[in-house]
């Protein structure tokens, strides 16, 4: 059994780092969905407590549960992640700490406003809602009729600011929704790119090309030239996209 109770500052620092990495890896292996969202300041506090004192105090566990709820993590995923911590430390699960974690999560979840699925600037899906849908399709794809794929339409970044103005963002959203209406696609805007999850078919691919053209016409050409790449989510999607796309680059299919 690995012991995380330490005797020196150097050993403590190494032990905290080691436990943090083991927890992160174990959490991913047990089902954590979005890796970029795992680390929070409260995570480091929990690791420090367990590494130095071989326990997680109730307030510390409660704080982590509250932070997970504020970030839209479900109670099931939050508790599974916490169990992964003790598995990584090769320690028996602290049931009292787990209860405190759940209490912190519940208090925030009960008082927090509902998480919106719509981005206020574009009217498209929020990043969290889009990622959840991608996860659902990727995980339960066999239950969905036909194959799905991702398309990313990248447009030039603005020269004088970090983001396009809100009026142009609104027009981007209107154009994308209009062009993809009736296709069963879901779209979000992030970092000067429109991300589209769509049922893969020849007609939908044509609609996406039309969507790219429509975006290039916005803002007096401010979004031109745009580039589009396809990312199949399954082997069947790759085969279909491969016969339809003009050129291939590994597992992605790009049009100019």
Shape: elongated
The helix/strand order is HHHHHHEHEEHEHEE
Give the strand line-up of the largest sheet.
Answer: 2-3-1-4-6-5
How would a textbook summarize the main sheet? 6 strands, antiparallel
Distance between the termini: 56 Å
In round numbers, the mean pLDDT is 82
| Fraction of residues in β-strands | 5-15%
Q: Structural class of the helix and strand makeup? A: alpha+beta
Number of strands: 6
Which stretches are low in confidence, meaning pLDDT under 50 for 5 or more residues running?
235-252
Provide the gyration radius in Å: 22 Å
Number of helices: 9
Helix content: 40-55%
Notable characteristics:
256 residues, alpha+beta, 9 helices, 12% strand
Walk me through what this model shows.
- With 256 residues, this protein is α+β, with helices and mostly antiparallel strands.
- 51% of the residues lie in helices and 12% in strands.
- The chain has helices spanning 9-29, 41-53, 58-70, 75-88, 95-111, 127-139, 166-180, 202-216, 235-244; strands at 148-154, 186-189, 193-199, 227-232, 248-249, 252-255.
- It has a six-stranded antiparallel β-sheet, sandwiched between helices.
- The termini are far apart.
Q: What's this entry about, in short?
A:
This protein is α+β, with helices and mostly antiparallel strands and 256 residues long. The protein has helices at residues 9-29, 41-53, 58-70, 75-88, 95-111, 127-139, 166-180, 202-216, 235-244; strands spanning 148-154, 186-189, 193-199, 227-232, 248-249, 252-255.
